[in-house]
Amino acid sequence: MSSIVKEIQEALAVLSIPEKAEFFPRFFKTGKGEYGEGDLFLGVKVPDQRSVAKEYYSKINLKELSELLSSKYHEHRLTALFMLISKFEKTKDIAVKREVVEFYLKHLSYVNNWDLVDSSCYKILGRYAYENKKENLLRELSEAEEMWHKRIAVVGTMHYIKKGSFELTKEFVTRNLKYSHDLMHKANGWLLREMGNINEGELISYLNSYYKEMPRTCLRYAIEKLDEGVRQDYLKGRI
Length: 239
Description:
Elements: H1 3-14, H2 18-32, H3 46-56, H4 62-69, H5 74-89, H6 94-106, H7 114-131, H8 135-142, H9 147-156, H10 158-162, H11 167-176, H12 182-198, H13 200-210, H14 216-222, H15 228-235
């Protein structure tokens, strides 16, 4: 183990809260989240992880970062992703950005739970794909067998939504409606809701075509910001 990785792990250990570490496994076993077999928890708050990432991201190289990202401790992996996001966002060098994206794709086996996915994919993959017209990066993930890869793909379209481009999101959501995973439906609904925040007409048009096929979780998130009467009409199937 490199000295910088050991230093980061020790910095996180100082910030750990044993009671919080015990809480996480119980919380996620209730179905509110999903973690890989054998995941361990230190109990470090996310703001503290971000602070450590901010301090160390410029000091650690990608090889060392892979050591941290391969840890069984959730906080080590999330901190590694925060640092990776900073490396991507703080550089204007397209070669460095491409290297970060390639590193991210190569290490997807360690980005294997919903919390890690949501913290990194659209800030790295989504932005890179949009800015460099690399939609196939997301499209290939959307067609993978692994469910979290499909979620990476759909959440990765958030940057497209922010730029007023909705077709990729709608394509992925429509394909995902057939899956039974509730957290996938939550992601789909969340992306549709954000689409509606920017262009409500786009959301209404999409809902009118697909809302009867939507699992309730997806629909509830998608219509969350619409007027109460409209929400009730969709929930009761009157539209």
